[in-house]
Design a protein that fits this description.
heterodimer, A: 408 residues, alpha/beta, Rossmann fold, 2 domains, 6-stranded mixed beta sheet, 5-stranded mixed beta sheet, 14 helices, B: 307 residues, Pyruvate-ferredoxin Oxidoreductase, domain 3, Alpha-Beta Plaits, two-stranded parallel sheet, 9 helices, 28% helix, globular, disordered N terminus
């Protein structure tokens, strides 16, 4: 059934359709709406779940992990500072192999404090063991929750999942969403029946145990890595099932006007829609351009990225994040995937933009294309470039004047 | 009555390294003992490296210390995999200790070497035992055996009494325990008396060869990090000096001992009475301290008495 839903409502609907049983919660803008909706549904009896508010995201994630290990399907959500406050427990619940789902509503990280999105929050957790699926649309937000649980609970994976949506640009943005029926979702995502170790008072076991032995630590950590890599194959398999039931197909990466494109912009999340619009316009101008969206960020879909980008003349990696003192976070991952193939792109250039949710104009997309054309022709690849316009600078100048008096 | 032990003195030859491993449990003073040994060797003018490895920082948790003593700069670090001498603070540690069969073994136990060898199927040819806990209790009036262990190690390595006494004084000063110096020096001298001279040269280090393997994915039943057998299922028998005994007439089934036991050695029976599994009890005595009705008393564990 088609309905008009915000990104937050889409996430909540995905959780409800997945029959989640336990929801530890803590509010933070722009995520709070998710737990408000879920708490309403729990109160109304629309969901047979227990929603518990916690004193912090740290405890909230811990509770989600512990609950998941009792064999219930656990859901939780947070954003930005909340995700960072939970940081050490993200490593823990992943290490427990607790197949819970965490919705992160991206919001740029303080300081300076702001509310709009970039991906430093979610990408800071890229190494901890969570599978990461990043949504471009409200439809994807809902579908990714259902897909996320199916991947998390697969015996080849058994890892927690983060579904990422952008604050404001998706969280509060209403779009038409095809909402699946309960029956359809139940067919795709059967009841969670854990067969690996889980907490049970009648037969106590120790979870989250110390290994204090470097060989054992290496073993358990590398098993998590192998489990995460398995998620690529599991994703492919379940995407076929998903298509059969829901008539939509997802891939780890998604190409847009990619077939014959010489120049490609790589990006993720909701701003991809803006990128697609720019590519469409550039195509009208006769440019041989396309776009590659990275949808599954962890595990990193290396082979799919190689297949999508091999033989291109130039590639722009648009990072909506900044590793201070390093550059874009996804750029080195894309470059290293391509390095050892003979027909790698002649130039791969790093662009940083959209920080704190900064709008990306068509001119900035065009600028990226012209820079990678130039780099491919001259074999001179510039270091990372910030997408920042004269209009941005004039805005900042006027604010600085207000804040600091005359800055001349 | 003094026991004259079969003992061995290492010769520190040129180009030869002594690899010494001390094995004990948190609270026995293994780290202090290792510092005394390394300091004594340092005072003698050797190149020395000493490193403890511990797990949970808690009384009763296994701890090891690795000491390298050489005439030349030491280009090694970390674990000693094939020690020339192993000093073990109590026999319960055999269970989770991988012994180098070529090493000389000193064990703090009331058992003699032959009984120990047959009890734990130890293959090492050279085993020396002595009840250091008994000796320490006698002289220090407490069961902290760090100085006695250090003295044994120093004696077996072939260090002089002078440097060892000096090292003990330095260590006790560092710990602000100057008032303990006299008794501990008495203990050191006693250990040196008990061990007679018999020279055995250190053997050449044998290095095991390893190869890199491909690790494949394992089902989470195996590869998720959890323990489904009773926690701390390694027997602690022999380590607990005082073991707790529950008086069920006084027990109110409050479960406090069950909750506080750090090793899950106390379980509840079907009537919710606590039951102590002495195989798992390390004798930390927390249950004894916490019991609100004083239903738990302590008894000296027979395994730590001369047998």
């Amino acid at each position: 059934m088609k309905r008009l839903l915000t990104g937050n409502a889409s996430i909540a609907t995905g959780a409800m359709l997945s029959n989640v049983e336990y929801i530890p919660a803590y509010p933070i803008t722009p995520q709070t709406e998710i737990i408000e909706i879920l708490s309403k549904w729990v109160r109304e009896g629309k969901m047979n779940a227990k929603l518990v508010t916690f004193e912090s995201e740290h405890s909230m994630i811990t509770a989600a992990g512990a609950a998941s290990l009792t064999g219930v399907r656990a859901f939780t959500s947070t954003s930005s500072q909340g995700l960072l406050y939970a940081f050490e427990m993200l490593y823990n619940v992943a290490g427990w192999r607790a197949p819970l789902l965490l919705a992160n509503v991206s919001r740029a990280v303080a300081a300076p404090i702001t509310l709009e999105p970039d991906h430093n929050d979610v990408l800071s957790t890229r190494d901890c063991g969570f599978i990461q699926i990043h949504a471009e649309t409200c439809q994807e937000a809902l579908d990714d929750v259902i897909i996320g649980y199916r991947i998390a609970e697969d015996d080849m994976v058994k890892l927690p999942v983060i579904v990422n949506i952008d604050g404001f640009y998706l969280s509060f943005t209403q779009e038409v969403v095809d909402v699946p029926s309960n029956d359809e979702v139940e067919e795709f995502l059967p009841e969670y029946k854990p067969i690996h170790g889980y907490l049970n008072a009648k037969n106590p076991i120790s979870l989250g145990v110390a290994v204090l032995n470097s060989s054992a630590y290496s073993y358990f950590k590398y098993q998590m890595h192998l489990a995460s890599l398995n998620a690529l194959k599991v994703h492919e398999k379940i995407s076929k099932d998903f298509e059969k039931i829901f008539r939509r197909r997802y891939y780890t990466v998604e190409g847009y006007m990619l077939d014959d494109a010489d120049y490609v912009i790589v990006m993720s999340n909701s701003f991809t829609t803006l990128g697609k619009a720019a590519i469409k316009e550039l195509r009208k101008e006769g440019k041989s351009v396309g776009l590659l969206k990275i949808r599954v960020v962890r595990p990193f879909p290396r082979d799919d990225i190689i297949n999508a980008l091999r033989g291109r003349k130039g590639v722009a990696v648009f990072d909506q994040n900044i590793s201070i003192g390093g550059g874009g976070i996804l750029y080195p991952e894309v470059v290293s995937a391509l390095y050892h193939i003979d027909d790698r792109p002649k130039a791969i250039v790093s662009f940083i933009g959209g920080l704190g949710g900064k709008r990306i104009s068509k001119e900035e997309f065009k600028h990226m294309i012209s820079v990678i054309e130039d780099a491919a022709n001259t074999h001179k690849v510039p270091s990372s470039i910030l997408l920042f316009t004269d209009e941005d600078w004039s805005m900042v100048r006027s604010m600085l004047k207000i804040a600091k008096g005359d800055i001349e | 009555m003094l026991y004259i032990l079969n003992s061995y003195i290492f010769k520190l030859l040129f180009n030869v390294m002594i690899w010494l491993t001390l094995i004990g449990r948190g609270g026995q003073g293994i780290k202090s003992a290792s510092h005394i040994v390394s300091t004594a060797a340092f005072l003698k003018g050797y190149y020395v490296q000493s490193q403890p490895i511990y797990r949970a920082e808690r009384r009763g948790a296994p701890i090891s210390a690795f000491i390298r003593i050489s005439n030349e700069p030491i280009l090694e670090r970390g674990y000693i995999y094939e020690p020339s001498l192993i000093v073990i603070a109590d026999e319960s540690l055999f269970i989770d200790t991988n012994l180098n069969k070529d090493a000389i073994l000193f064990v703090n136990t009331a058992l003699d070497a032959d009984k120990l060898r047959s009890l734990y199927n130890i293959e090492n040819k050279r085993i020396i035992t002595y009840n250091l806990t008994g000796l320490t209790l006698q002289i220090l009036n407490k069961s902290i055996i760090s100085v006695a262990l250090a003295a044994v190690a120093c004696r077996l390595i072939g260090l002089n009494l002078e440097e060892v006494e000096h090292a003990v004084i330095m260590q006790l000063e560092e710990l602000n325990m100057q008032e303990e110096v006299d008794k501990n020096i008495e203990l050191v001298r006693k250990v040196f008396e008990l061990i007679s001279n018999s020279n055995i040269e250190n053997e050449k280090k044998r290095t095991k060869s390893v190869s890199v393997i491909d690790l494949s994915y394992h089902h989470p039943k195996i590869s998720a990090c959890y323990i489904s057998v009773p926690a701390n299922s390694i027997s602690s028998e022999g380590w607990n000096v005082n073991k707790p005994i529950i008086d069920y007439d006084k027990c109110t089934k409050c479960m406090i001992c069950f909750i506080f036991c750090p090793d899950s050695a106390i379980i509840l029976n079907k009537d919710n009475y606590p039951v102590i599994n002495y195989d798992l009890c390390k004798g930390c005595n927390i249950c004894y301290v916490e019991c609100p009705t004083k239903a738990i008393r302590l008894e000296r564990n027979e395994a730590t008495l001369d047998r």
